[in-house]
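Budget justification aside, the reviewers requested a transparent look at the raw inputs and outputs of the sequence design task funded under Objective 1. We therefore reproduce one unedited record. The lines immediately below are the structure tokens for a 218-residue chain.
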């Protein structure tokens, strides 16, 4: 499933996809679903769309009124969103984390931190799946470590932000916003490195040479 599934794409935008996910009681927000799909596209071990859907819904499939409802969700996620995300396997079109205008307030920064953590956890979950370890290059291993470190730094900021007045703006919060922006850039570059290294690894597998690759543990 690392390549595009089919040329067919849906015309649904983010809001429409979010609405469809909510309709079926998806426990993950859109940005995390997007990240978990990207992680699975990059994953060395590929799984079926049904298994990906089950993972997104916490281990069980959502209930569908009929086959048309199932087809609508599958087409939207795997023929639409999946295919668009698959374009990011090229460094010319890198994967980006979600964007919006963030204000230097504790309330807004908490939303930013939790959003980024959900995205990084989603990519991690999609990439590793049920595997304890995966075959990866040294560069991919280092990039995965950087993603983990970024997630830890974000988590460490939550207690500080929860103690702040929700609407207060000061230099410390402005500095934190800059730091979170830098972390976002680092995380994006690391994710893209994992993606491009995975593409390289798949190409090398077809040539039956795996020298320079090792097991990366979850």
């Amino acid at each position: 499933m690392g390549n595009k599934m089919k040329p067919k794409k849906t015309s649904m935008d983010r809001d429409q996809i979010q609405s469809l996910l909510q309709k079926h009681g998806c426990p993950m927000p859109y940005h995390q679903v997007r990240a978990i799909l990207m992680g699975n596209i990059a994953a060395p071990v590929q799984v079926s769309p049904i298994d990906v859907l089950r993972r997104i819904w916490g281990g069980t499939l959502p209930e569908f009124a009929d086959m048309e409802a199932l087809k609508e969700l599958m087409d939207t996620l795997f023929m639409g969103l999946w295919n668009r995300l698959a374009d990011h396997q090229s460094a010319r079109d890198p994967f980006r984390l979600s964007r919006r205008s963030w204000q230097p307030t504790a309330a807004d920064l908490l939303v930013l931190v939790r959003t980024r953590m959900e995205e990084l956890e989603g990519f991690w979950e999609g990439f590793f799946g049920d595997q304890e370890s995966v075959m990866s290059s040294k560069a991919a291993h280092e990039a995965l470590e950087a993603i983990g470190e970024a997630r830890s730094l974000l988590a460490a900021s939550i207690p500080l932000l929860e103690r702040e007045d929700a609407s207060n703006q000061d230099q410390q919060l402005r500095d934190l916003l800059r730091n979170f922006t830098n972390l976002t850039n680092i995380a994006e570059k690391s994710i893209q490195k994992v993606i491009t290294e995975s593409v390289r690894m798949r190409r090398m597998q077809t040539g039956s040479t795996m020298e320079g690759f090792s097991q990366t543990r979850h």
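The mean pLDDT is 87. Helices lie at 14-23, 30-42, 49-56, 67-86, 106-128, 138-163, 171-206. Computational costs for records of this kind are itemized in the attached budget.
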